[in-house]
């Protein structure tokens, strides 16, 4: 466990609430409200849908502009978290292992984690749809333009950086500085991750809690977010780009549409 800083605990707690309130914590609150609204709607969850990467304008280049702005501004809390974690003589990226110092090892771990999480995740989604506790998730509803696939890849990278830097690196570092026990740290990180996925239904929320436990424990032991970012990016790229490229009949067979 890293040594405590000289900053008062109250200041650190306030900082954590501010960072979460500007990023994943805010998303979590909205997702909780969203799942309550879905559960109390007339239509059951199995008949409801959600789109992860919707089109934002019928005009192609205006749509592209909105997509890029959304990605760029979503990364501002990441920059804030890294700024707050930085110390004299030590960059925050080095502190949380967001570096390219061991690319092949990180890539191998990332691919392994992606397979460990991604394959069972698809099964959990299918099971959730069958049980009626998961909405129909449309991973990408963008029209097919020359920029569609690059934007989906950037969106996957954005999600990975936002979630792994804040939910894993930043939050775990700060909670440990506040003296939290390892089990409590892992629980907080994983429950946060599950909360902001509840808009997809109860199934994805629980699946992401499980993913959060694996990722949080890995970070707690290894102090590296780069493999987590690679794994998360790979999972989302397969979901987003695969969804946009697969024929409708295949998507229907997989229960994705």
Automatic annotation (TrEMBL):
Matches recorded under Pfam families: Rce1-like
Family matches, as InterPro entries: Rce1/LyrA-like_dom
Lineage top rank: taxon: Bacteria
Domain CAAX prenyl protease 2/Lysostaphin resistance protein A-like: 146-238
Statement: the UniProt record of this protein carries the keyword Protease: yes
Membrane-spanning residues: 16-37, 64-86, 107-127, 147-172, 228-246
Swiss-Prot/TrEMBL keywords: Hydrolase, Membrane, Metalloprotease, Protease, Transmembrane, Transmembrane helix
Gene Ontology MF terms: metallopeptidase activity
Protein name, per record: CPBP family intramembrane metalloprotease
Native source organism of the sequence: Georgenia wutianyii
């Amino acid at each position: 466990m890293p040594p405590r800083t000289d900053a008062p605990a109250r200041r650190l707690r306030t900082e954590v609430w501010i960072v979460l309130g500007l990023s994943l914590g805010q998303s979590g609150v909205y997702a909780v409200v969203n799942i309550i609204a879905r559960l109390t709607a007339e239509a059951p969850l199995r008949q409801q849908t959600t789109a992860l990467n919707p089109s934002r304008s019928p005009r192609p280049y205006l749509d592209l502009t909105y997509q890029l702005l959304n990605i760029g501004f979503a990364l501002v809390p990441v920059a804030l978290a890294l700024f707050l974690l930085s110390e004299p003589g030590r960059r925050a990226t080095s502190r949380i292992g967001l570096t390219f110092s061991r690319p092949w090892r990180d890539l191998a771990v990332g691919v392994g984690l992606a397979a460990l999480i991604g394959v069972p995740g698809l099964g959990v989604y299918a099971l959730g749809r069958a049980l009626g506790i998961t909405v129909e998730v449309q991973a990408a509803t963008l029209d097919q333009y020359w920029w569609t696939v690059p934007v989906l890849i950037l969106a996957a990278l954005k999600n990975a950086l936002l979630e792994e830097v804040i939910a894993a690196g930043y939050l775990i570092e700060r909670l440990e500085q506040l003296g939290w026990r390892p089990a409590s740290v892992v629980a907080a990180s994983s429950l946060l991750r599950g909360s902001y996925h509840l808009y997809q239904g109860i199934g994805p929320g629980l699946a992401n809690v499980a993913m959060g436990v694996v990722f949080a424990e890995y970070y707690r032991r290894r102090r590296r977010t780069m493999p987590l970012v690679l794994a998360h990016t790979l999972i989302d790229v397969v979901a987003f780009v695969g969804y946009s490229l697969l024929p409708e009949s295949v998507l229907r067979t997989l229960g994705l549409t």
